[in-house]
Structures
1.
Amino acid sequence: MTIHHFETLRPVDLFVELGKGSVRVHATDTTESHVEVTGRDADEVLVEQEGDEIRVVAPRQRTSFLSGDSALHVVVTVPTESVLAVKTGSADIDCRGTFGTSQLKSGSGDVNVEVLAGPATIDTGSGDIRLEEARGDLRVKSGSGDVHVERTSSTVVVSTGSGDVQVGSNTGPAIVKTGSGDLKVLSAGDDVSMSTGSGDFVIGTATRGRFTAKGASGNVRIGIPAGVPVWTDISTVTGRIHSTL
């Protein structure tokens, strides 16, 4: 195990690069950042501070039958609204607190984030993505993982190859795409555009905005509160259309 302490009187730019293991980042009201690395090769991990930037870079991990457990686990504490750039191979990424501009990428690990206050991108190959709140523009992409975004207040673009996508509520435009998964928006307060090859579409409650759903074989359900004026343009090749407006 190695532990590093750095004086940080304001938010920092944190860069973490890791292959296998886990990355946990805590954003809190602090004037001192901490980096803790555990694992067999913890002593080989580069941890340094240069101005307002903190870098944590693990050596390229060797994979063979005799290499043993080469997983590394990194725990970092930084000031609130610090900028994040995290890149991993198969390591999970878990970020607690409020962060600024962020770029998070994992090959096959899961990504779990609490609050993103600035523009952000999240990209995984096959891992699941969960985000509690996005206050800035958000772009999310996954090859085959599920995506769950609880609240958005700016533009959000989500695409996944075969996973399901759920957005809790949006007060900014939302564009959601998947190859074969289901798409769901629980409460829509702005424009929503959804497309899928074979999944279902659901908008639980739609209060305002323009809603577009395009699919090959899935079902579409949109809930409209009584009294809301609606203009519809609906067509289907083989399915049924039912409206209680």
2.
Amino acid sequence: MSKSKTTASTPSPLLDQYGADTARLFTMFAAPPEQTLEWSGAGVDGAHRFLRRLYLLGQSQAQMLQTQNQQPGQAQHTELPKALQAVRREVHEVLQQANFDYDRAQYNTVVSAGMKILNLLESTRAETPPAHAVFTEGLSILLRVLYPIVPHITTRLWQHCGLESAHGSLLDAPWPEVDPSALVRSELVLVVQVNGKLRSKIEIAADASRESIQALALADETVQNS
């Protein structure tokens, strides 16, 4: 941690006030390992708020998670409603990027990946069995991705949410694998340009033919009025 007129060169005050996990998260997120870390009070507060959100989310869903983890199993992607397929696809896309960033020791972007997954889980209404499965899988991925960075809170949630009974201790749990089926898109969104200007966006089947794409684009009301 770089020294300035207003801060000391030791993280002890940070550890005393916020705990080791916040200190670790802040130092990992604030700058890549090869760069000098500049102190930021707002950054520390942000790291602490993120961990608080993570803990409260796990606590709020603990009963459902404990029940779900008594019957562990991967969500069957093709059987999920489209909205849940989208959530699961984004989680696995973020996991794929996090794995790549870990290999490059880009820990700041690994933390960013964790934040993206947390945002996804917070926006997922875990009210049905399929949603329970997607949420549980997503949280188990999130905790494993963040474990090397914030081991204390992730271990606590892993145990409290019943994941230890399903997968063993977090220390020995297998690293999450990207599910290729989750990355497959059944539909795509294409932009439609007229004379180089964006006029519309159309949603098509991933295996749509060139002819059907052209017909759909030409039938678009905005395109017709261009």
3.
Amino acid sequence: MINGLLEASRGCSKEEIRMDVISTNLANSNVIGYKKDRVSFQKMLKQAEDGSGSQPAVTLRADLEQGDVKQTGNELDVAIFGKGFFKVNTENGVRYTRKGNFTLDTAGNLITQGGDQVLGEGGPIKIIGNNITIDADGNITTNMGQMGKIAIVDFEESGSIIKEGKSYFANPQELPEDSKLTETKIHQGYVELSNVNTAEEMVNMIQALRAFESYQKSMRVIDELNEKAINQVGRLR
């Protein structure tokens, strides 16, 4: 019965973690370029088999599936169609994102809404002039000529990059960047929405809640059986 209580307790912890992930996904469902998280409990299952560990060891991975795109008409909004990320220079170093609702600072530098510089193939991009055009390969031109090319990169092991806030990803393992993305295109005047399916996440939340309640009920039943067994053994003595 003790093992039963432990298994039910692990089950409750597992569903609590799943609920937290689902809640985070739903809270960011309207954030441009957001990639939902998926949770894996494979480590937890191995611990249960080995009899090691009292807390569920989970793995969170960002689902990099493309989100829907929305037309905005803004000349500085760009969406990636295909694999890859924009490169952004932040105070913590280079970060990667699919959030392409860019703007210009007072000096004409292409920046994110948070003020971080968007990087081109030659470094930061400065735009002067009017009639900004961004082609499918990321080349930026104005009435003053060529202004640079937006850098789009990917990684062979994209699952190894780490998700941060602001829809950013970090590359702590310093995986090599791949910039030869022949099938990836950029569309000006569009943004990529989050890839969170709210209906699907709501169904997952209901399932997680029901599973949590089932584990709780199992714990109560086992606890009652333990109490009866203890009392009966006491009377027999």
4.
Amino acid sequence: MPYTPPSRVPRGASERRPAAPAVPASLTATDSAITDDGVYTNFLFDGSDLADQRAEAVEIDTCRLTGVDLSGTRLTRAMVTNTVIERSNLSNLRAMNSSLIRVAVTTNRMTGVAWTNGRLRDVIFRDCRLDLTRFRSTTAANVLFEGCNLKQADFQDADLRGVTFEDCDLTSAQFSGAKMDGARLLDCVLVGVNGVTSMAGAGVASRDMVALAYSLAGALGITVLDEE
């Protein structure tokens, strides 16, 4: 069988950026706690302490969360739509069977977040600390990670076919079992990536291929010999 070189996809080809949330400038300020079956619409959470809370079936729509502490909070079947989350602490937040739809997540501390068996659609993660996060078995459509620290992030069994990683640090990230046909990785650090064989069909910037090649060689049992 003749050798077929990998395809080269121009930057920006067939790329659709996530739709940005449309949050009005005027919102009602609140410090309300998050409760089971709570519905929060057109609210501004500014500096709110929402840490270590437990809630099921929460709905947050057309809100802005600025400087909020959500660390250690546990959410089940939460729905967050058309919302901005910025300059907040979400470290060790746990969300199960939850959704983010048309959400901008910017400049947040999110170390250890677990968003499992969830859904992401039209979501932007920008300049966030997302190391040690878990997105296992989550489906992502039209999602952008830009300028994020994703060291040791776990995307095992996730559907990443609609995801772009741009200028991210993915050192030692886990992609085993992920679906990545059509995913894009541009200007990313890919040292020590795990589950690299799941990247079949993904687009990777040519300048990032050297680091990825070592992971791929290891996955295929290839020994890289140093030249004498």
